[in-house]
Amino acid sequence: MGEEMTGAQSLIRSLENAGVDVMFGIPGGAILPAYDPIYDSKIRHILVRHEQGAGHAATGYAQATGRVGTCIATSGPGATNLVTPIADAQMDSVPMVAITGQVPSSAIGTDAFQEADIRGITMPITKHNYLVTRAVDIPRAIAEAYHIAASGRPGAVLVDVAKDALQEKVNYEWPKNIDLPGYRDHSQPVPQSIRDAAALIAQSVRPVLYVGGGVIKANAHKELRALAELVGAPVVTTLMARGAFPDSHQLHVGMPGMHGSVAAVTSLQKADLLITLGARFDDRVTGKLSTFAPGAKVIHADIDPAEIGKNRHADVPVIGDVRLTMAQLLPAVKAEFAKSQPDLTPWWKQVEGWRTTYPVGYDVPSDGSLSPQYVIERLGKISDPDTIYTAGVGQHQMWASQFISYEKPRTWLNSGGLGTMGYAVPAAMGAKVGAPDTTVWAIDGDGCFQMTNQELVTCAINNIPIKVALINNESLGMVRQWQTLFYNQRYSNTDLHSKRVPDFAKLADAMGCIGLRCERPEDVDKTIEAAMAITDQPVVVDFNVFRDAMVWPMVAAGTSNDDIMIARELAPDWDSQEL
Amino acid sequence: MKTHTLSVLVENQAGVLARVSSLFSRRGYNIEALSVGPTQNSEISRITISVNVEGHALDQVIQQLDKLVNVIDIIELPASTSHQVELILVRVAVANGASDQKKIESVLEKHGAHVVESTATSLTIQQTAKPAEIEALISELTPFGIMELTQSGVVAMGRTITS
Ligand SMILES: Cc1ncc(C[n+]2csc(CCOP(=O)(O)OP(=O)(O)O)c2C)c(N)n1
C-alpha cells in the first residue's frame, strides 16, 4: 500500500515522478486543489497571463530541450484557452501534456459553472486524451500521458481531472509498467526496407535529401550529416527542420516550399529520388501535389505509418525512428556504393547553377527606410550560433527562416503546421526557461505580438530575460502581401496603424521590460548590441520597417512549384539554365 | 467506390466510439454503417464499420485508426472470407387485406424472414441475413409500402475455414 494522500497530491507527485521540472499555468476553481500541493512541490510553476501563453511556453520549452512540456489550467475557459496551443503542438509533433481541472464528476453533463467538455473538444487535436474521475486513476493517466506524448511521433496529450478526484483520499502508487495494448512501437525499421532504400540511393543520379522536423525530434542531426556526406546529395530543410543540417554546409541548398529557395524548390522538382526523412509532404512544401517532383521515386522514412502514402506514394517506405533508420542506412549505402556509386557531378552542376543564379535576397528600400530583411540578417550575424530564435507567423517568420543561418538543431522554433500568430513571445519564454544560459530572441510581427505580448509581464516578473525583435511594418504584412499580389492592392483590414499605437517601446517599459526603438539602417547594429548587453531583463526592440517589403521567392498557393516566382511577375530565366 | 468492412477491436472504455467517429469526421471518411458491441473479453469491444472508400484511402483509414491509442487491432473482412450479417425490423402496410397478406407472406417465405407482429393494417417483420439478401428483401417489400424500417449495421467475423 502506498502513502495516503489526496488526488491532488497524487497528481503533483505523479508529475514529479514523470520528470516534470517546470510547468506553465493559471489556477481556477476546478484545478485549485492541485495548486495547494504545487505550493510545496519542487516543480517550478510559472504563473502566466493567459492560458494560450502557458501552452505555447510548454511547446517552446519542449522544442528547445527535447523534453515534454507541461501546461496546466482550470476547467471551462481555462481549458478552452489551451485549445490553440494544443492544436499547434499536435500539428508540429511537439511532446506536450496539458493538465486541466474539470467540474466534479457528479456535475459533468449538467452545464455546471465553468464546465466545458475539453476531452471532447480536444479529441481531434490531441494524440490522446483522458478524463479522470477517480483519484486512483491519476498516476496511471499521468504516466501514460507522458509516455504517449514523448514516444513514437510525439504529440499533445490532455489529462482532464474532475475536481472530486483531486479531493478524494487515495493510496499513492506510481505504476511500475505501462500497458497500452493498442499503442505500438514502430521505432525499428524493417531490414528489407533499409536494403531497398540503399539500393535506390545507389541508382540515383539526381537525389535530394528532403529533411523534415522529424529529424530534430529524433535527435538525428549527426546521422543526417553523415548520410548526407556519404550520399553527397543536395539537402533541403523544411520550415520545421531548419537547423537539422547546418545552413553553412556546402550540401545545403535551402528551404523548400512556398517561400523556399529556387535551388531547393527546383532540385526537388527535378530530382529522380527524394530521400524523405521525417517529413510529411505538406502542401506548403509540395505546392500543387500532382505536379510535385514528377520524375522522382520516393523513399519515405517516418515513424508514423499513417504518413506513408498519405499525400505522396512512397516507392520505398521505411517505417521507423529516423535516427535508427539513418544509422542503419549508412552501412547499407556504403555497401551499395562499394559495388557502384553514381556520379552526381552533372546534377550538382545544375543545382549549383540555380543556387548561384538565384540566391535568396532582397531589395533595399529606395526611400532609405529600414529593410525588415536587413534587420533580421544583422540579428543573425551579430548573434552567436547557439542563439535560439522563435518566430510568429507571417512575413517576419519567413524572413527569419531565410536570412538567419541555422547551424544547430533546436535553435529555430516556430509554428509550422498550424501557423499560429502569437506563438513567438510565449514560446521564447518557454525556451528560455528550458535553456536559461542561452540567448533567446523572439522575432515577431506587430500583429502577432499584439496577440500574446502580455507574457512579457510573466517574463519580467519571473526573471526570464528574453529578447524580442519586433518587425513593425504597421500591418498584417503577409496578408497584405497576398492582397498586393492577388486582390488588386485592396488592403481590406490589414492596416494595423501600429507605428505608434501602441507605442511598443513604452508598452515594453510598462510591462517591466526595456523598450528600444530603431528606425534607421545605420542604427541597426548598435541597437541590437544594446539589446544584447541587457541580460537581466526582457528587451523589446521596435524596428520600424518598410511596410511594402515582400517575401520572395514565392509559389502561389495551389500552383505548381514549377511556377515559382523570384519577384513580382518575375520567374527564373529557365531558358538560360541547363535543365 | 466499394464498401469495405472493418472489424475494429477497441478497449472497452468511455469515449472510444467518440474517438473513432471523430477520426472519421475529421479525416473526411464516410461511414456507411457502424455497429458496436461486446466481445468474449469484457475489456474489449468490437466496432464493425462499413466504409465506402478506394484502395489507397482504405489504407489511410486503417493506418489512422491504428494510431488511436485505444484501438487494439483492425482487420479488413472481405465478404468472400467472412460471415457478414445484418438485422432489420421492417413494418409493411397491408392495404388490400388478405390478398396483400398472402403476397407478403410468400416473399417472407422465400427469404426465410418471419413476422413478429401482425395487425389488420400492418406486418412487422424481422430478418437476419447477408447484406445483399437484406437489400433484396427490402426491395421486394417496398411496393407494399414500408411504414418503418430499422436496420443494424453489418456484424462480421472472419471464417475459420478459408479456401
Ligand atoms: C491566430 C491567427 N489569426 C490569423 C492568421 C492569418 N495570418 C497569417 S499571417 C498574418 C499577418 C501577421 O501579421 P504580423 O504579425 O504583423 O506579421 P507580418 O506578416 O507583418 O510580418 C495573419 C493575420 C494566423 N496565421 N493566425
From TrEMBL, chain B:
ACT domain boundaries: 5-82
Species for this entry: freshwater metagenome
Biological or metabolic pathway of the protein: Amino-acid biosynthesis; L-valine biosynthesis; L-valine from pyruvate: step 1/4; Amino-acid biosynthesis; L-isoleucine biosynthesis; L-isoleucine from 2-oxobutanoate: step 1/4
Keyword terms of this UniProt record: Amino-acid biosynthesis, Branched-chain amino acid biosynthesis
PANTHER family, per the entry: ACETOLACTATE SYNTHASE SMALL SUBUNIT, ACETOLACTATE SYNTHASE SMALL SUBUNIT 1, CHLOROPLASTIC
Matches recorded under InterPro entries: Acetalactate_synth_ssu, Acetolactate_synth/TF_NikR_C, Acetolactate_synth_ssu_C, ACT-like_dom_sf, ACT_dom, AHAS_ACT, AHAS_small-like_ACT
UniProt-listed Gene3D superfamilies: 3.30.70.260, ACT-like. Chain A, domain 2
GO molecular function, one term: acetolactate synthase activity
The protein's name in its UniProt record: Unannotated protein
KW Amino-acid biosynthesis (keyword) present: yes
Keyword Amino-acid biosynthesis assigned: yes
